[in-house]
Design brief:
about 450 residues; mainly alpha; Growth Hormone, Chain: A; 3-stranded antiparallel β-sheet; globular
């Protein structure tokens, strides 16, 4: 086998020699199902459940909303920083261990929830839980799916990321019921068990870092004959220096742009800003939607609006995964930023129950797709060489919007009203559209690939 220049390959911990292509279903779809389940758990017990834990802590600790409101901000900030800090290791180590460690850390944090008896302890809990959430979250999940798919990447990502919404629909209500019935301390071991059992066994049994582990290329294509027939002595695996001696690594030729080069491009910078302001408006609106509808109507309409929002986002994400196979990704993303802005403007002025429910469904169209399109845009523009680092840095910027949106819209509502707050969220979405346009053509970045 010809010598492969070090700059042209990426390495990762060797787990098992490649086997021949599996008969029947492509193993990548099994991985999509595994990621789907992991995201159901991490979003249902983590992302969507954070506000449930916060509300219960406010009640049980007899604390003011202001004193505890920063805890969820800390949770998202720590998760963003952790995802970026460990993203480089995704290129060198078996991804299954990221999920497994995230499952263990998250479970330990949830067990510790029973000892939260002060506001300070609540912040400590959310800080540790943020680490577990990141290691078992979107950065390793989208990295995994991106490696296994090229032609059908949008469909695979849409199915896998739908686990986020399903977690909010299915798991969060169970978690909320446990907390209401048993308090935070009583629900703690049950939440820890759901987190641990829903993540760790699936990761260890099903996750494989890349298609070559199964003797395949992305989308199930067979490896070239020379590669498929290679053995470690042929150069498919290389010994890399490490502590205590050499470590066996699998060499995989990957296409794309390295992180150092990517972060200086206009496309990368514009996309970071775009998703920060898009998530600012999106997550801020989701967090305030129930209270806004409750103010203008009744509890039944508020609950229906949230349910319709979630269900529409699931359907729209699955449809969007198929649509983006036929239309360019970047214009589709820009169009959805405009859809989000229009939906938020309609929500800003809606008052009757039917309009509140319909406009919530309209907002679900953008929510269902913009999150799925983020990793797709990054993989399309920058390839998979340093995908984990590039995506995690973009996600870190997005976390600023995720953490700041709910707080900012709440402050605007207190200072003015919800019409003003949702109008500002719409303006942020329009700003996201502008920055996506300013990013320039994807082909310009692809021309820089090595």
């Amino acid at each position: 086998m010809d010598h492969v220049p070090e700059a042209a390959v990426q390495t990762r911990e060797f787990v098992e020699p490649p086997t021949g292509p599996d008969e029947g279903i492509f193993y990548g779809w099994i991985l999509v199902a595994a990621v789907f389940v992991v995201l159901v758990i991490s979003s249902g017990v983590g992302f969507y459940n954070a506000s449930v834990i916060l509300a219960a802590a406010t009640r049980e600790l007899d604390a003011s909303v202001g004193s505890v409101s920063g805890a969820t901000g800390l949770f998202f900030a720590i998760s963003g920083l952790t995802g970026f800090a460990f993203s480089k290791q995704l290129e060198s180590f078996d991804i299954r261990w990221f999920f497994a460690i995230g499952g263990i850390v998250g479970a330990l944090a949830l067990i510790g929830l029973r000892f939260v008896e002060s506001v300070a302890a609540l912040y400590v809990f959310f800080g540790i839980f943020g680490v577990g959430f990141a290691l078992a979250g979107l950065v390793p999940a989208t990295t995994l799916v991106t490696r296994w798919f090229e032609r059908r990447r949008s469909v695979a990502l849409s199915i896998a990321s739908t686990g986020l919404s399903v977690g909010g629909i299915v798991v969060t209500p169970i978690s909320a019921w446990l907390i209401d019935e048993r308090s935070l301390a009583g629900a703690s071991p049950y939440l820890a068990a759901i987190w641990l059992l829903g993540i760790v066994p699936i990761a260890l049994l099903l996750v494989r870092s890349q298609p070559s582990d199964k003797g395949l290329q992305p989308d199930g294509d067979p490896l070239p004959p020379a590669t498929a027939a290679a053995t470690p002595s042929d150069g498919l695996y290389q010994d890399q220096p490490g502590r205590g001696g050499n470590r066996r690594k699998a060499v995989t030729g990957l296409k794309g742009l390295d992180f150092v080069s990517a972060r200086t491009t206009r496309f990368f910078i514009a996309l970071c800003v775009a998703y920060a302001v898009i998530f600012f408006g999106q997550v801020g609106a989701i967090a305030q939607l129930f209270n806004m509808v409750l103010e203008r109507s009744d509890r039944a309409t508020a609950s229906t609006s949230l349910s319709v929002l979630a269900l529409t986002s699931v359907a729209a994400r699955l449809a969007g995964g198929a649509v983006v196979l036929r239309v360019p990704t970047k214009p589709f993303t820009a169009a959805l930023a405009v859809v989000q802005a229009l939906a938020l403007l309609l929500l800003a002025t809606a008052s009757s129950p039917p309009m509140l429910v319909l406009t919530s469904a309209f907002l679900g169209i953008s929510i269902g797709n913009l999150l799925m399109l983020q990793p797709l845009l990054i993989a399309e523009a920058f390839g998979v060489v340093n995908y984990g680092r590039i995506y995690s840095f973009n996600q870190l910027f997005g976390t600023i919007g995720v953490a700041g949106g709910p707080l900012a819209l709440g402050v605007l509502r207190d200072a003015f009203d919800y019409e003003t707050a949702f109008t500002v969220a719409a303006a942020a979405s329009i700003a996201g559209f502008v920055f996506i346009v300013l990013a320039g053509p994807t082909a310009r970045v692809q021309a820089m690939w090595r």
